[in-house]
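Reader question, answered in our methods column.
A reader sent in the components of a multi-part assembly and asked whether the whole thing could be modeled at once rather than chain by chain. We filled in our standard form and ran it. Here is what they sent:
COMPLEX SIZE: two components
ENTRIES:
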Amino acid sequence: MTATPLSSSQGAGRAGDKIFSAAALAAGCLILAVLFGVALFLVVQAIPALTAPAAEIQGGEGFFAYIRPIVIGTLIAAVIALVIATPIAIGVALFISHFAPRGLASGLGYVVDLLAAIPSVIYGAWGAAFLAKEISPAYNWLAENMGWLPIFQGPASATGKTILTAGIVLSVMVLPIITSLSREIFLQTPKLHEEAALALGATRWEMIKMSVLPFARPGIISAVMLGLGRALGETMAVALVLSSGALTASLITSGNQTIAAEIALNFPEASGLKVSTLIAAGLVLFVITLGVNMIARWIITRHKEFSGAN
Amino acid sequence: MSSTLTPVRSKRSALTKGQLPKYAPYVVLGLALIVGAAILALIGFNAFGWGIVSAILFAAGLVGWSAAVEGSRKAKDKLATCLVVGSFLIALLPLISVIWTVLVNGVPGLIAPGFLTSSMNGVTGVYDNKAVEEGAPVIGGIYHALLGTIQITLVATVISVPVGLLSAIYLVEYGNDGRLARAITFFVDVMTGIPSIVAGLFAAAFFFAVVGPGTKTGAVAAVALSVLMIPVVVRSSEEMLKIVPNELREAAYALGVRKWRTILKVVIPTAISGIASGVTLAIARVIGETAPILVTAGFATSINNNVFGGWMASLPTFIYTQILNPTSPANPDPSSQRAWGAALVLIILVMVLNLGARLIARTFAPKTGR
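And here is the structure of the entire assembly that came back:
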């Protein structure tokens, strides 16, 4: 290499600096633009469905009559998933953070992460082929013995492809999310609080109840909210497992539908106004999950400021 | 017996009085298994029910014994332990069940001749009916879907990694925790929560508006996957760049090295193992995504090597369509055999990527000198 004049190399370096920082800034702004673009393009493509005469929308009663039952169906499936997953996920997180032998803990954490790694379509196939078949006797039992409850009203689905099965599959899928987030929060509990509780003679459970859970409460809430976001938007598990239909109160007959599954099942063959209707449904889903996620993240951020003091 | 006065003969000293003996859990477990088996024998034996009944009996027995000997506080502790361990075992059930189901159903599909090397081009219901009725071999495979998955994922990676990595560099090196940096961090977190199908709809809506209605190609799917992949890459790279010791940067600056060369030659090489493993994990996450590909690339039965033109198959959508719309509606078995075979291939791909990420992180971890 021949020696280059100092000034030109400096000039090149300065230009490099400018280009590089501009590229980094542009990439950061691109992310904001993408999120904005998601909202914008969904709105643009959804407008025809929102403004079309009511009779032309599927069902013939306008967009809101079309979207209302599937929004409720989405919420039902998500609530089932959370009711099942939350206690188990907190238990698993506690097991890994406070109960399991130290040497095993990280390996067990990896096992739970494997649950998150399995693709959703495989969960869907598993739910449809294995779980639905195995669980349908239980539905018959529920219909016979608990049928007076509206949610267990018979006759039970013979195939087991009901919204309850879909909710169970969803709960398996949100479990690792809630587990890994709460585990991290549990591990952040100030060691001194734990040791102080133990030194006062508390049993392990009392120590957890007095020092770990109060500390972790906001974290658990936000973890559950993030799990809710995932459960609301999950498509394949519901599309493959649920044999969909009109909105029904009973969880053990076929019926109900979720937004994501409705889009996945109908979009590939849709055209014209139907495409627009489905994109509008996607917009509704986007707004709901965005709201849930923003609340969850807000709780986490607020919590960070508090825990920084410890 | 004047037991209060005579020295205790047994091995249990005064210190361990009022505690359950060490062997207590094993005794209770043995009893629970035996009683559980007896109960199940009465109502019809199955292994799953045996496990459940025994677990309940074990918990009840241990907690009851503990309550009698140790008092209610210790008993509550035992109950909590039983519940926590139990919830972990319950969480393992679906994992084992899923992997077992995929293995049992997938192996026949995978070992069928030509499964990995042929496409579904020209495979019609006629052949499937023949396979069921006359015992002919099941033909058709996943070659086209495998190619499609690799191409779509590759394009998505090529889009996401530069954008994600540069954003992470902005956040760590240039952002100074300013308003823009905090906004990006917040919205990246929010983006990780975008439902995958909404990402697919976004890409579809974008291309419908820009290129023309009904545009469905591999590239559209790649854009959809990038929307899902970028936040994962940003988050993991950001974490990795943050843990690069500041002394390294300061040493470079002290030698008069420009900031961009410091980042390229010092910061990134130090963090490269973490970044690479983060990218691998991001690929593992999007390679199994079904919904976004379903609404953006459609499904094809033949090989399509052009990412920018025509519908394209992928492994997840192949599984989905083979289950939901069997090639021969009268005889869905060959289709489901192919679907499970594809599921096995997909799960192996994902697991290899996950393990690979861990190996990369471990092998190329920087030497911190501590």
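What stands out: Residues 72-111 of chain B form the longest helix (40 residues). The mean pLDDT of chain B is 84.
Send us your own complexes using the same form.
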